[in-house]
């Protein structure tokens, strides 16, 4: 019988709280479906810094390379804001992405019908929303060299005498592999890809557009491809989001556009993500799963956090890392049912109030719904 290995990295802020609820779901699948998970847990972000003086210990990095999947909660918090840049909690997350080479970050934005009224946009604009942003995750301005803050002493015109540098850099190979991921995903959905860049002002954007078009023409001519400048894309996302199926874009634009797309769905507390790399020996991609929301220090420790994004991230792990698509469907159905029954955490409370459930009650309800389905 296969055992599925999972490394849990709860991280900081609400990360540990939402992860406790995921554990309930994992236990449910072990007990009721006889699926064996080999779960280990370790530190990342500020929690790792507190113990090891670095946001990700080498042993943890090594473990992450060996498991079938990593599930990460969130990193960061005000206690770590003034740390040196090199040991900030975010560096731990970025190291995982880079060293596991998780180049394709899948951020679905789906609007659950029961929540359409919670969107900041009108119901008729977001109802039925089902888009997938594929964000390049291991290159671009996040990692490009040269980078740094330098003195600019020889330039008397520069008040303050300093210069901050980051580099947007993409190779054709990096663009092609993420484009392939987007086309493959589109084939299993609405068969449409919209690629976003700023080819009007950036050479890296011109290359991006050309290479995505190349992959399309040579390998996926049957998929419909369009191109859009990223600023127009941001506008279209809030104007008529349903026009999109799969959006493929670079690391920085993807970071920004996915937050905008997230808000369309009503709450950041609902959105999962998967970061996938090259296939491992078992044929499944190297993978890390994480909710799109952050560590939410303002509500940490109050039982207010919505665990659904993290639980849906585990559902993505079931689908992409463990080949348990039916179980992933079941878990998503359970969540849909709980929401349809009106169960709400505080982030999902409308203006007319009601009584929110706690993080842990939401977890219990989802497990109950799993048993009832
Ligand atoms: C995200 C986050 C991260 C990013 C931060 C925490 C480094 O905003 O996953 O979207 O910028 O990629
Ligand atoms: Mg972000």
Automatic annotation (TrEMBL):
Where is Mg(2+) annotated to bind? 231, 255, 259
What keywords would UniProt list here? Amino-acid biosynthesis, Branched-chain amino acid biosynthesis, Cytoplasm, Leucine biosynthesis, Magnesium, Manganese, Metal-binding, NAD, Oxidoreductase
Q: Which residues form the Isopropylmalate dehydrogenase-like domain?
A: 5-366
Entry EC number(s): 1.1.1.85
UniProt superkingdom: Bacteria
Q: Which HAMAP family match?
A: LeuB_type1 (MF_01033)
Q: What is this protein called?
A: 3-isopropylmalate dehydrogenase
Q: What species is given as this protein's source?
A: Paracoccus litorisediminis
* Gene it is expressed from: leuB
